[in-house]
User: Fold this.
Amino acid sequence: MKFKEQFLRGVKIEESTNKIQALLDRHNDKIDKSRHDFHLPQLSIAGLRLPHNLEDLGIFCVGSPGSGKTQAIAKLISELKQRPDYRVVCFDRNGEFTANFYNEKQDLIFNPKDKRSLGWSHNWESASNETIAASIIPDHHHTDKFWSDSARNLLSEIYERTSNKAEIEGSCHMVQPYMISHLSTPFEPYLDRNFLSKHCLV
Assistant:
């Protein structure tokens, strides 16, 4: 049995890129041209230029693996880097955008695992010390919650009483003998010799 497609109401799906681009360009004809620099590169997705008044709206990019999501985002980043009127915060989980677009003269990296990263201090965060400690020290499901809570409390208290990395290091050296003396307890996963240097001294 063959079904015939019938349009009832709502938005129609348009497959012609020429018609779609004509509709998008029509937006530019309606906006106040004095508020936009039309000499700047226009943002585009899959070859379709976005109207200037829609550039700062949300874009949802979804598709199966290999469908071109990364390429579409990379094209946008390339165009945005040519636009002096935009600033971009890029969450680059795999590092591929950093590898392709990073410019040490104009870009900033915030990644404690990258030697090019900006310095960081817990005092610069809007989150509370307790929240920062909770994000650094996860629950260990094989031990009593008391131990992870105690480790968080310790780190939170260190943050509360310090203002820079040097003070944090000094505090860690003070508590380290106590920490080492408890290496045979359930507290061990949180108090080994390398824990603070790995997770706290960013």
